[in-house]
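Why does residue order matter? Because the sequence determines the fold. Keep that principle in mind as you read this record.
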Amino acid sequence: MIKIFTLLLLLFFAGFNFAENVVRIPAIGRPDTLTVTQKHLYVTEGATVYVYLLKNLELIKKFGKEGEGPQEFSLNPYYYRGGVLLNVENSNIYICCINKISVFSSDLSFKKEVRVKSGLEFIPYKEKFLGYELINEGKVTYRVLNIYDSNLNKLKEVFRNEHSVQQGKGAMPLGSNFFFRTNGNKIFVCGSTEFIIDVYDNNGKKLYSIKHNYEKLKVQEDFKKNVYNFYKTSRLYKQNYEWIKQQLRFPDYFPAIRDFIIDEDMLYVRTWNYSEKEVEVIICSINGNFLKKLFLPIISNDSLNPYPYTIKNRKIYQMIENEEKEEWKLHIHDIYDTK
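Structure:
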């Protein structure tokens, strides 16, 4: 009897951290990104945007197609996983493609579009935009993060680092990272192989850095083989595989930070320590205080990327493909043990 009771306790607490809900999402073929707000769930697939009510996951609108006109989006297969980027700010929906940003109201009515003058990726921020561009100075290529006005005129450089692809030196897919996010009046930038996230105010003035002592992982041969196989079989890259194979250069160690997500007052920093069914995540407060390290149930799609996921209100949302049934399901995990 005692053994049975102990087993029940173990099962209860094993499920306490990550209670899961799984919902089939019809009509999706190959999702690129996933965005969650208080009321809606947005899925992008190429140039198409699917909008669902979060409370019951009912599809309420599907819009967008590839093209140059209003509510049409130009795609480049080598940016954004081949699709558009969607962000929500001040109740507006912003959809970024390679040559413009389209703005929709909260009821999904088309408002306007802003043409991209230069730069590669933009997110809305306080009636302005953050975006980055590639700049060549001598023989060095830099990724430069800038603040832009509402018409995408460049106002100020915030941060730069050396691009992972340099002429004559090949490409290091695991080289120095480059991620930028916003929260309130702050800009968060990761551009180092170390565990460092620099924080700026809304005018681009540096406030502080978030640092954590992290023992980086060595890049193993099995991982390299998996990366080569990814490029060999990827629908985006396989036609250029032989050229890519010659360009790839691997560092000795993984960067400390793979990516990070901000959810309310916490940072979820994903590392390169992962298995097929879980990922190591370092959780910090928005001010940089270390809270804890967890292995979260974020499923990997390949050696370089997880299936599309996000974290909102201490829940993990992830679209995962069931290849046998050729369908996609939304997996929702509650994260209780984060403080």
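The longest helix spans residues 2-16.
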